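[job 0412] stage=fold_complex status=start
inputs:
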Amino acid sequence: MSQFSLDPRTATLFLSGVLAFSALVMYLLYVSLSRKTSQTSSEYSEAYIGGEPLSVIRSVDVSVRNLFWGIVGGAGRRLYSFLREQMHNGILNDWGVFMVIYMGLLLLAALIYFMR
Amino acid sequence: MEEAVLISWAVFSALVFPGLLSLWIAALLSEWWVRKLYARTQRRMGPTYVGPIGILQPFADFLKLFLVKTEPSYKYGSVKLARIFGCVGIGAVVATLLLMPISPVRVAFDFDVILLIYFLGVWVALSELLMSASLTNPFTIKGVSRYSSIVAVAEPAFFTATIVPVYLVSLTTRENPIFSISTTAEHVWSLWTKPLTVIPLLLATMAALVSIQSKLMLPPFNIPEAEQELIAGVETEFSGPLLALFNFLHDADLYVLSLVVAVVFLGGPHPFGDNPVLGALTTVLKYLAVLTAVTILKSSFGRFRVEQGVTTVVKYALIPALVALSFSMAAPSLI
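[job 0412] stage=fold_complex status=done
writing structure:
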């Protein structure tokens, strides 16, 4: 048994070389010994999805619209809950006052923006 | 002249021992041991038909897949890429074996444990992941994502555990090369006789066994290839020679990880290091003991969910390994 005391850099290069050489030999063995398919029907090369057609994946795909509302709903949930539970007490008149104030604020913001 | 000798030894090591040929034989024999023992724990016969007590069954399975079955063509993936990553994974296992004391050409230098981490942790795990991901399929992608979640915790746990005996040996013996697999394999046996070093070594060995279980996707961590749920998970699109290559890579990973535990944690040929025959026999017995422990763990649990798997690896592998390393580092004067 021979033990070679190499410096770390040479040893790393040496072992990386062994990795590459073994991988190459294995690849050549694989390519030369394994059998390739002669059958190339479209069904044969499809992905296996439990016997289902590819449309199954598309139908459960999350659309961009779902993703948008998922994020907005997730991020805005606290604000929405606050508005619903704190601002709206179930009395219609209060809700009317709130909406008038809210619209007034929007109008004010719009006026400030456009009259700059 | 010395370079020529080194290169000839390297070619022999890469192709014959401990390289491709012996790796193929040892990996498939390990598969037989696990299959037979696993079957016996479930009151089944296990492999019986090919060879005495079915010992040649994994070889027959491999050769049938490799030489008889055909490699299919895939519309949504790259077979060539899968082949390349499979072969790179095998190459990384061969390179790791050259750091082990069983190799005729043994590479040893200060801090060579980092190379073990690099080849075994980065290349082998990455090759398995990328080999599966090369063949696109919803089940494969799901399996790959589950495997990467587990590996992200199991790899640090395994290597933290490996550093424990390496660190303890460097601390107590101060022999050159330091932080080396060879030095550790030679002296770790003496640490099992000292009460203060037994505690971190026991914790580290336990952590290593749990990590091996999870890295190899064996029950209860067989989440990435969950049958009845993900068809075959990471293996769904493999068939014929590609499946043979993936199985070989998996068995080679099992072989090298168990060998690391048998040699680095349990001391390989010691206490019969002076006698080559008894030493080799002791190493084989320790290796079989590790494989048996892995198989018993495999047969004792049902499949975990992803978050249960990750939590278990953290609880029984990562934390014990960190505790063992901290204990070893914090109490050098005691040791």
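[job 0412] summary: The beta strands of chain A are 2-5, 35-36.
[job 0412] exit 0
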